[in-house]
Amino acid sequence: MATAITNIGTLVTNDPSLGQGPLGIIENAAVVIDGDRIAWVGSSSKAPPTDNRTDAEGRAAVPGFVDSHSHLVFAGDRTAEFNARMSGRRYTAGGIRTTVAATRAASDDELDATVARHVAEALRQGTTTIETKSGYGLTVEDEARCLRIAARHTDEVTFLGAHIVPPDHADDPAAYVDLVTGPMLDACAPHARWIDVFCERGAFDGDQARAVLTAGAARGLTPRIHANQLGPGPGVQLAVELGAASADHCTYLTEQDVDALAGGSTVATLLPGVEFSTRSPYPDARRLLDAGVTVALSTDCNPGSSFTSSVPFCIAVAVRDMGMTPDEALHAATVGGAAALRRTDVGRVGEGARADLVLLDAPSHVHLAYRPGVPLVSAVWRAGVREV
Ligand code: NIG
Ligand code: FE
């Protein structure tokens, strides 16, 4: 049974052939949803007859946000660490250990409830596709159970056994890499689509990251990487060399890193919630965009470095502090995220796309950045179902 959403003030389709500019904006638009797909997009006055109709009353509509980077399978809380940072302490990868201990001690039901709560929280803020990772279990059993739980809530599941070397392997990191690329990968590969590694001083070096990603790729998992977050390093160029779907963080980039991204197919995923929550310098989105790099914008929702599930918040920060225009930030948070997940069915509003649509209590998508912190999301359809 088809449903039409009519009288949309401005609709961002992300398809330049459907409307004006790079965002393909249609004014006075309508969208027809049939099942889980979009069946028709165009001018409201030409909308075909349907059984059901929702009047958007001039509100703006955008594609559902695609959050291509989060860590939702965790237990516990890092408020004390955040408080210490806001009193001047620096963020380090070491805080991850606190969450690993809490996650190992948690029951499946507790972890499941936490993932469900944050996926629902993100949905209320317009996120209709979300990637999430393991990485707080760091034993064969705990990583596998974190992935099984994640897979109940999303198809975009990433194995991040190489998040840090856990305390139980502190004196033999090489043995931990062997575990990750051997028995842990065997147990985890069936539950994931992606393989990830935290390539950073204090986590894994370039050679270890290469070993992890190539082992995952040999098991059918596509690489993505946490790279160049806390300082310069080999991660971004490794990602491009291996054809990774995405290099995430990209905060400290050399000219060679930018050139490599511009010459390759790897998306640069920027995560401004991290710099906000760790009081550190933001990545330079302008430099990447000007070089022709595909940029995605995501939350990195996790209890340590970025405890926000809000894509609108990230859009506002990216516009204010990272040199992005409101159009570029919305593009990065929709089609950019889709590119980082190698998806063409989400992040756009067009015939055949998944019916993921967000209505805003605003006359245009620019208000996402213009009205920071204001809950503008007034309705959300995910796969054709009205969820909010
Ligand atoms: O993407 N950088 C590594 N991992 C997460 C932080 C995890 C944590 O602090 O718990 C990130 O920022
Ligand atoms: Fe992350």
Automatic annotation (TrEMBL):
Sequence positions that bind Zn(2+): H69, H71, H226, D300
Keywords: Cytoplasm, Histidine metabolism, Hydrolase, Iron, Metal-binding, Zinc
Pathway it works in: Amino-acid degradation; L-histidine degradation into L-glutamate; N-formimidoyl-L-glutamate from L-histidine: step 3/3
UniProt record similarity statement: Belongs to the metallo-dependent hydrolases superfamily. HutI family.
Protein residues bound to 4-imidazolone-5-propanoate: R78, Y136, H163, Q229, S305
Pfam families in the record: Amidohydro_1
Domain Amidohydrolase-related: residue ranges: 247-365
Residues annotated to bind N-formimidoyl-L-glutamate: Y136, N302, G304
Chain's role: Catalyzes the hydrolytic cleavage of the carbon-nitrogen bond in imidazolone-5-propanoate to yield N-formimidoyl-L-glutamate. It is the third step in the universal histidine degradation pathway.
UniProt protein name: Imidazolonepropionase
Cofactor(s) needed by this chain: Zn(2+); Fe(3+)
Catalytic activity: 4-imidazolone-5-propanoate + H2O = N-formimidoyl-L-glutamate
EC number in record: 3.5.2.7
Broad class of where this protein is predominantly found: cytoplasm
